[in-house]
Design a protein that fits this description.
The protein has helices at residues 15-25, 51-60, 81-91, 119-128, 136-140; strands at residues 2-10, 30-37, 41-48, 64-76, 96-103, 109-116, 132-134. The chain is of the alpha+beta class. It folds into two domains: 2-67, VC0802-like; 70-140, VC0802-like, CATH 3.30.2130.10. Strands 1, 2, 3, 4, 5, 6 and 7 form a seven-stranded antiparallel sheet that branches.
Length: 142
């Protein structure tokens, strides 16, 4: 499992630019991000090294944010990989709240982030099918 930083933003001009400038000014390198919005607000989800420190930087700038445990999974970069994972989780009774993907250094692999109803069950199901769930150490190894 890894920690994801979720930042709650008002749905108004300049909010993303402000957060990006704050993080860039603190030399924070983002590895993945996702934005979900409604008419009134948005949720910016980030994957970065030292998520606790990043969350504090964002909070100190006046934004509401939280840390969430999510699964990061290394998947083959081939058609049908998402379908395979979703079928495994569905068959195991694990609900998926949301997912997003980002590139890995290995062109034959991709990384997917999953927010699910039960991280431990999901990790066991995926591991049983030969899929590797990643730790922050795996993601940020240099």
């Amino acid at each position: 499992m890894i920690k994801q930083i979720s930042v709650f933003l008002e749905n108004k001009k300049g909010q993303l630019a402000d957060v990006a400038a704050i993080l860039g000014g603190k030399n924070i390198n983002l590895h993945a991000l996702s934005i979900a919005d409604t008419q009134d607000f948005g949720i910016l989800r980030l994957i970065a090294e030292n998520p606790e420190a990043v969350a504090e930087i964002v909070k100190d700038a006046g934004y509401i944010c939280s840390l969430t445990d999510v699964l990061a999974v290394s998947v083959p970069h081939t058609p049908g990989s998402l379908a395979h994972i979703v079928q495994i989780l569905s068959a195991g009774g694990v609900d998926i709240e949301y997912t997003y993907a980002f590139a890995s250094a290995d062109a034959d692999r991709a990384y997917m982030v999953f927010r699910v109803s039960d991280n431990m069950t999901a990790a066991a199901l995926l591991s049983g099918e030969g899929l590797k769930t990643l730790s922050e150490k795996d993601l940020f190894a240099k």
